[in-house]
Protein 1
Amino acid sequence: MDKYRHWHQTSFKVRDYECDLQGRVNNSVYGNYFEHSRHEFLLFKGIDFAELCEQKIHLVVRHLEIDYLKSLSSRDEFTVFTKVEPQGRLKVLFHQHLLSNLPADEHDLKEQNNPSRILYAKAIVTGVAVNEKGKPFIPDVFQKMI
Amino acid sequence: MDKYRHWHQTSFKVRDYECDLQGRVNNSVYGNYFEHSRHEFLLFKGIDFAELCEQKIHLVVRHLEIDYLKSLSSRDEFTVFTKVEPQGRLKVLFHQHLLSNLPADEHDLKEQNNPSRILYAKAIVTGVAVNEKGKPFIPDVFQKMI
Amino acid sequence: MDKYRHWHQTSFKVRDYECDLQGRVNNSVYGNYFEHSRHEFLLFKGIDFAELCEQKIHLVVRHLEIDYLKSLSSRDEFTVFTKVEPQGRLKVLFHQHLLSNLPADEHDLKEQNNPSRILYAKAIVTGVAVNEKGKPFIPDVFQKMI
Amino acid sequence: MDKYRHWHQTSFKVRDYECDLQGRVNNSVYGNYFEHSRHEFLLFKGIDFAELCEQKIHLVVRHLEIDYLKSLSSRDEFTVFTKVEPQGRLKVLFHQHLLSNLPADEHDLKEQNNPSRILYAKAIVTGVAVNEKGKPFIPDVFQKMI
């Protein structure tokens, strides 16, 4: 997994209430997984989303794109890898990949280059900070992020 | 609203539990709105998503793109407009626009061409039918859809 | 439906994303239905939940009880009936019944006394108002509610 | 924590999308936490909820009671403790307590008897197994559960 060495990681296990009629995780729930992973990434960078809300600094999503490659089901364990890059002066771009966890018995041997991880989904998310009136601006926290 | 004359319509009202820390509808919930609108569109075409599930015909989303233009808040009432077009032999493309409802007092006068409706979000969703083994195929219902 | 003549009503249609692995509406979603119905009831009484939040007046649930009598499934249409009564000096008690809608063809004939409505679920919810420090108090809006 | 020595434990961290307008975890989400904890408990006992669904054995909730004692907020980490007892011949009763995790620095010293854990919520859930026609019965798995 050399590719993801510098990406932030958040681990999950599918919860049954996230599955729908088809017996698979509902499409919209991937949006939840990706959001939680972004907020964990922000916390890791010293940025607390909930605190920003109270200061009326709103980090909002302008554009979201998800590729669904394989369906998640009950009991699946997986990790979302997140990295960020600036886009223009006011926006940031999050790249997020959702991969299966390493099978327990392969964890030690193949830690860095494991072909058996499955790529379930990929997201690209464009974020921007807006003030109370909805105007985009560059908050101090952006410097911490990138 | 000439533009949407031939689009299918599903109406909603924001529910408070759909709003998050920011006091606005959470991004992932738009995914729910768009999904429900697609399923209502399918029902209108005589296609019952839940029944298909029981027949092991799975309509799945391969790609989702959402543009967030303006935030929905508590009490907002809105309509999702949906239309579909074929993409290649195996896929269908849904175009979905989420607009504010007409203000009640303007409803009669301006029914067909109303500049005061607000476009909140737009989605493009690529769907495909897969069998139990996950192989794409063309189910009979596709003919009803388009 | 003489019994419910003075209860507030909120109508719903099951959305497929609310159904889980069992092909039925997930238990927790009933909590959403009941909450939305309480907030609609409050609005009807002139009380705006979201506005109260901004004024740091928090209406919170202390106790929730739900009886699940019959499962809701895809496409079901139903109504939540809500009434409220004071409990002691600081609390209010919501009684909520979730019933199937009238079948369309029976709507006219049996409007007031229809034996064919199905009772899906019942809830009793104890609410209290707390200030920013979490202390219970009696807000002015309580007088409007009851 | 002697009291909970024989209870099953499932750990969680609040995700921001689970918080609502009030900046606290929405009431219905506690239903999700308790459900996921019951399913983890069942897995621990060798009972796979999703597999049972496929065999048309449905474990369903008949009655749910939640006491909300303190609100969960962004970043809170907590554990749901679950135990089960039979109720009559056909039902099982789950007792579930949601407590804050031990502060990291107190973890070693006070592992077994920690006064600083906070009780956020308690649930009592009555479950029953029903066949495809909705009739209650005693599945073999009940013996594993208790």
Note: Chain A touches chain D through 18 residues (CB under 8 Å).
Protein 2
Amino acid sequence: MEQPAGTRGQHEASSYFSRDFNMMPAWKKLGELARAPYDLTAPGALSSARIRSYRVHAAGFDLLYSTQRVDEPVLAALQGLAEESGAVAQFLLMKKGAVLNRIEGYASEERQVLHTACRDIFAPVCPAPEASAQAKGELEKLADFLTALETGEIVNAAGEPFTDLVQVGIGGSDLGPRALYLALAAYKMPGRRVHFISNVDPDDAAATLSGLDLAKTLVNVVSKSGSTLETLTNEELVRKAFAEAGLEPSRHFLAVTGKGSPMDNPARYLRSFYMFDSIGGRYSATSMVGAVMLGFGLGYTQLLEILRGAQAMDLAAEEQDIRRNPPLLLALLGIWNHNFLGCETLAILPYSQALVRFAAHLQQCDMESNGKSVTRQGKPLAWESGPIIWGEPGTNGQHAFYQLIHQGTTIVPAEFIGFRTSQYGRDLLIEQTTSQEKLVANLLAQVLALATGQADENPNRCFAGNRPSTVLLADRLTPYAMGALLALYEAKVVFQGFIWNINSFDQEGVQLGKKLATRLLAHYAGLRQDPGYSGETSDDAGWALLGAAGVLAKERSD
Amino acid sequence: MEQPAGTRGQHEASSYFSRDFNMMPAWKKLGELARAPYDLTAPGALSSARIRSYRVHAAGFDLLYSTQRVDEPVLAALQGLAEESGAVAQFLLMKKGAVLNRIEGYASEERQVLHTACRDIFAPVCPAPEASAQAKGELEKLADFLTALETGEIVNAAGEPFTDLVQVGIGGSDLGPRALYLALAAYKMPGRRVHFISNVDPDDAAATLSGLDLAKTLVNVVSKSGSTLETLTNEELVRKAFAEAGLEPSRHFLAVTGKGSPMDNPARYLRSFYMFDSIGGRYSATSMVGAVMLGFGLGYTQLLEILRGAQAMDLAAEEQDIRRNPPLLLALLGIWNHNFLGCETLAILPYSQALVRFAAHLQQCDMESNGKSVTRQGKPLAWESGPIIWGEPGTNGQHAFYQLIHQGTTIVPAEFIGFRTSQYGRDLLIEQTTSQEKLVANLLAQVLALATGQADENPNRCFAGNRPSTVLLADRLTPYAMGALLALYEAKVVFQGFIWNINSFDQEGVQLGKKLATRLLAHYAGLRQDPGYSGETSDDAGWALLGAAGVLAKERSD
């Protein structure tokens, strides 16, 4: 295990790991300030001076926050909150390999949190040299494999090159990688395509496989534990399809898994790549979990660009000054809206169709990390933890749910994401503006409309305003920008977890459902083996629910 | 305009249009009952008798609600609420053509609401014969067109049949139709494919067109007003691509638009189909807005099946007894959770990958309908209107945001949707259960886990329970079932709007953003024409925001 360099520094900083949010002076201060938050609808409230100065820049992104309900006193208190919670100090310890995935005094995962090490391979001095060396080793294995595919050293049984890759994985092995691939499809290598199978729904696999030339298809099976039910089931389904097509799976299947897992069996796979315990699923897009698929689809050079962008943002996240640290500022603005202004949700609104699945990735990254009820000392939280994350690309959303954002009875803080130029560059001047200009103008118009509102004699045409939002803007959605954006949100989530004093790296909340599903499946299996089987006495509610759902009767009549 | 048959009945029922939610006796009663809602975690609370009896069936769907925090007194009060608000009476008036899209005493759309008329073509007696006749007329035009495509009467310039159709539309012309097509892709006509372009993002169109054989492609442009900015821009982009490929657009382009709209120009289109003022965009999936594309992709017979399923559910929605009316019961359970138990959001969790975009459709259908702040008399609401709708298919979500649903500090009511058998029927027995059984078992396990929770000595492994959910189950996701599901949610949304006394059929909240976007675009155009242009004096905030976003500087340096 990685040993952090400055042990003395670590000891001091680790005292932050048990500071309760509501015990910090900034918590009290912010509570007072929240009684009269900045009024964005007041005349002159949104001055050009404010708009121009409430702006941070890092790793290619501008963050504009003049349309948040903050002013100098609130920003000072948020800076205080960052310092009192030691948010950046904890982030630095994380990067160095501190065991942050734990609950003090209780059985827990007891793991380091080192997704940043995958990107720190570019850093002059690696904070966690061992983990970065591991990441580099896997990257080099991947580079060799990709070269062999390109030179024709690795081909199918008929001597043809592989054109397609199907990623089989779920959760972090699906959402982040898929969001990245869709975001960067414009940078695809010619003749290469990537597909995804995630759901245990058999229709998901069937729909994906129909229309593929399996002979030219690689299958990348991704599961850290090597025992994820959905992934193993889908792997079997896909292996069966290959066998039926007369193809030898071990010439087509790749594995990304933990060393020593049940899937770590080179005989069954053309190549195996490793993932490590210090990288949680929802933070694993820049590990081999995303890299193998992205390397195949976009090429190795573009893959490195993603990592470079992420590393640049990881570096910006080390700034102590919140006005120079976009992820930290975004985290604090989120806390202001959620804990102090009482907003339950956060909308992620990318004005880019390519980011169509980015909100789905963030739903996992954020909600699985921070949807918690106990502190890192196992005490019940006396404050709200993570918000509900949702959203769809604009301008589509404008024609859907924006009505509620503008005029509903619930305030929805929003994070808008935009780009100054398009990816494909195919655009058209209509009425003196391009489509991309229309896109950006719409984004900024929404931000203004939400903030300032509008009075009207017709009550149905009134807009109350004071609905807070942030804008994130970069020049273009390149692999570098995508890497930076990914890392920005990863760091934001982690900062919020530090401040709330929760463990953002475990997911005990998914266990009960798994346990009960196993119990219900035993009833199916029981019935299959013995038509007289009944689960009534051992599991009254479960058995009744299966009965009420009509699935057992169905089963019997089959 | 349609004249409702029983004018006297209408007069009585229309008194419901101005009843305020918080003035009804049931409102007070429910508020009292909400102080001690049913405790699902109490021993025996989830008895098999409760599970089996808290179930409603209609139009092929079972609705199970034993895991909601309701008991007999709450259900009686909800029945009272339905009656006091005249929810069903208003629904019947709607179907007959009452002018429900209005705000009393203020300028408003003043329209009927007759999406149900598209399905009432199967009813022995049409409640709104004129609108149903219109719908039937358009359906017959469509049937003729589809036949001509199949017989080879209509072909491309090279005499080949059309294989692909691109739907160009946004909002209701995209979300509902797309959700339906993806849900039913398993029923596709061989050799036919459908694609969608919606976003003004030029990359959206570019990504869709790349890889299409335009010579064999139809383009269906859908806009009621014929003036939707995104749709017209995309139509121009696509027409240009056709022209560049040497193809005559009028042999390829179809129009779905309002009579007399700027798009109602037969010379530019191969065929034109009409939509009517009485059908709002978000309720238009079963009108020509969805029908042309679905008819092409799935065939006319399957299209009629969708309409038949919807009509069956529309009929169930007429039941006065909430225990026989799934949409009404779902509406009331939603109101119980939202207005009385204080939950801001609602998760839609289909355990079917095919329903991947159904939640996105509901975001529009529900949030654009009920995200309102004034009553139908223009008074500010003193109660919460529509919730925030979000969700993703399971089991994927289990590996993403379910952590927060189980252990977060916010209660998220959920509606689970499942099917007893798969669409494709390709499935595999692994450990004595099929994938579809795993899918349904997981769905029901989540429902149980959320309701009952679990105690544990490790505080991080505790589940508080009492998190309410509903299950909707049908045999299989067929066109009929999809139609029923669509209509179920349309009716649910409408019922909630009736009870909250809001106009669920307008969308004034999207106007301000449009207005401001036009203002910002004028700055772009101004700069393009004159590099010395400045919008500073006329629009201080807008000009500053463009400057801070770096888009004007960019523009200048281009």
Note: Chain A has 19 helices and eleven strands.
